[in-house]
Amino acid sequence: MTGIEKLREIHDELRVKNVTLVAVSKTKTAAEIRVLYDEGQRIFGENKVQELLSKKDLLPGDIQWHLIGHLQSNKIKQITPFISMIQSIDSEKLLIDINSHAKKNNRVIDCLLQIHIAQEETKFGFSYGEAENLFVKGVTGPLKNVSVKGFMGMATNTTDSSQVRKEFTLLYDFYKKIKKQFSQTQFDTLSTGMSSDYKIAIECGSTMVRIGTLLFGERKAAQ
Ligand SMILES: *Cc1c(COP(=O)(O)O)cnc(C)c1O
Is residue 210 in contact with ligand 1, taking CB distance under 6 Å? Predict the structure, then answer.
């Protein structure tokens, strides 16, 4: 199946479930992205600022770019004028820094807090306790130039689907709890699910999936 056929199939599948597709285009060329754009896809996700900037200017201006990889504070200002959503907020400081750059640009930037839900060790993402503490402390309230819309999580890379299901369900329960307990009325996004596990994610409350390999083919191992 070609990328276009796969895109059509996934669009049809997600439409009935009201789930948003982020086409993850990291390591892929502007020409490859253009093919899916011409098929109607508008939201693309990249994990590196430099790579995103190099492709952005080669492509139509109505693409909504999502940053899905770790963001260093010194690169924030390069993306604040245009970024549609930053899904990889992994520290309180980053959120505060994005807020101040967004203010200078007269923008309100949609953000997701990245929660570490997998068993693998990684430097990035909040624990549930850390994330909850941000709301207990009321950190997001005064930050008028960021809108925290929900959470992003990546499940353990395993063929054990019950493990993946367990992790997505825990995050969904946390999302609902925070939305209710702290009256986060703007909360409408739970970004879970990639090529290998998006069907499970949707069964477990996902509202946004991030799919690369299924649409663009395998990435080269070194990247
Ligand atoms: C690369 C990446 C994806 C997409 O992964 P695929 O397995 O290619 O679908 C999704 N989310 C994040 C954060 C990524 O870095």
Answer: yes
